[in-house]
Amino acid sequence: MPEPSIFNKSAEGLRGLRFPETDICDQPPLLPKHMLRSKPPRLPAVSERTVVRHLTLLSRENFSVDTNFYPLGSCTMKYNPRINEKLADLDGFANMHPYQDDESSQGTLEILWHLQEMLQHITGLPACSLQPAAGAHGELTALLLFAALFRDRDEKRSTILIPDSAHGTNPASAAIAGFKPVQVQSTDQGLVDMQDLKSKISPDVAGMMLTCPNTLGLFETDVAEIADLLHSVGAKLYIDGANLNAILAITRPGDWGADAVHINTHKTLSTPHGGGGPGAGPICVSEELREFLPRPVVELDGAGFYHLRYNGDKSIGRVRGFIGQVGVLIRAYCYVRSLGPAGLREVAQDAVLSARYLRERCRDILQLPYEADCMHEFVLSATRLKEETGIRAMDIAKRLLDYGIHPPTMYFPLTVDEALMIEPTETERLRMIDEFADVLRKIVDEAHTNPQLLHDAPHTRSVSRPDEAKAARNPDLRFTFRPHGDEEQAPGA
């Protein structure tokens, strides 16, 4: 059974904390009387012990990088060094107020300025904004910059080209920025179909959103030609940086001809990932897009003083509050500084090596839809297994939970039927990678000998198979308060 709500452990008279009597003299309330609560909020009455047990039991429900192998494709769920957590939690950073003036914020501003410089060097682009809060936010910012550039030039461009294997947020970002998304087909090798792309290149195109390496884990070998094609009609190339972990310090989007790229620090540069955030998706851009970047940006003047620059007549304005998610950005700074260029290159090399090794271990377990060398991730297909046994990718994913492994990404990209996208990352030991391959083989054997076992999986979790379609279409978002009485009373007593 799942752990019940803390409200269901509430019992009148229990408490975990007693506040001292106030020594502040009676004063009239600051708010008008009609705005004050007439009765206390309905909070659970529980002891400290109950709270500790409740939170501990909830934590045991979680899968995380700290507790389990987490091969979630296209998300780079890797282990992050705890030293970066400790450094970001230093009082001078953690207790800094966002409204502090530049004079009292020089240490933090210096770090953020150096991080901008590092990200520009990593991406090969000359300008940077730290404001975007995540990857999708970074890609939206890139398209808002494209729109601002063409407005400034009084050019009417209405379409954005997007490969059929792209992240689902790409067409949404294009639409929000005021463009019409136009799909570009992939070849049977999983790469952009250059003939289809050429047929859709026109002066009406504002740009293209390209993930490289792409969501199949394959490097787009024609990326430089793609950039040239776009530039030949005045369009721009945005690189979705979700898969930057595969190319750190090896190759740079700016050198391919990219005009903009975002960086998922929560995937690539040491930020806790999952649970809804926090995240950061800084964006680096070409020189001609610099003046349109969100404000503020961190600048260094000739006197060695770091300050936030807010002015900029052509800026698209803020895309989030303040300078960005500073705690996350400090973690990224620490990660890059601690590894240096050689260490970042080793990250990418080890990530690619892990993926290619695991891919070879799995090629005879499930179908391998593309034979080209993968980068940091690869895609398997359960199509043949489905035809033979009725077992689908979802069943495999659910059964992996019973073996203590978080499922890979399922049914994405959409160009592969019954897809399982797997990314081992550079932080997993060879022993764990081998164990995953062995477990996957065992599950496929179970599919042939006892398929019902997989249809009913998981068997070891408190929640087995929720009706996901019903939950999405008819969500029950209201909590019904049903106190269970004394917390010491055993169920059924």
Using brief descriptors, characterize the structure shown.
alpha/beta; three-stranded antiparallel sheet; 16 helices; globular
Give helix % range: 25-40%
Helix and strand pattern: HHHHEHEHEHEHEHEHEEEHEHHEEHHH
> Which structural class is indicated by helix and strand composition?
alpha/beta
The portion of residues forming beta strands comes to: 5-15%
Beta strands, count: 12
Strand order, sheet with most strands: 1-7-6-5-4-2-3
Please compute the radius of gyration using only Cα atoms: 26 Å
The biggest beta sheet is recorded as:
7 strands, mixed
Word description of this protein:
The protein has helices at 48-61, 82-88, 91-94, 106-123, 135-152, 169-176, 194-200, 223-232, 253-256, 265-268, 326-362, 383-389, 393-402, 430-449, 451-455, 468-473, and strands spanning 127-129, 159-163, 180-184, 205-211, 236-240, 260-262, 283-285, 297-300, 306-309, 378-381, 409-410, 419-422. It has 493 residues and is α/β, with parallel strands linked by helices. The strands form 3 sheets. Strands 1-7-6-5-4-2-3 form a 7-stranded mixed beta sheet, sandwiched between helices. The longest helix is centred in the C-terminal third of the chain and has 37 residues, at 326-362. It is globular, with a radius of gyration of 26 Å. The two termini are 18 Å apart.
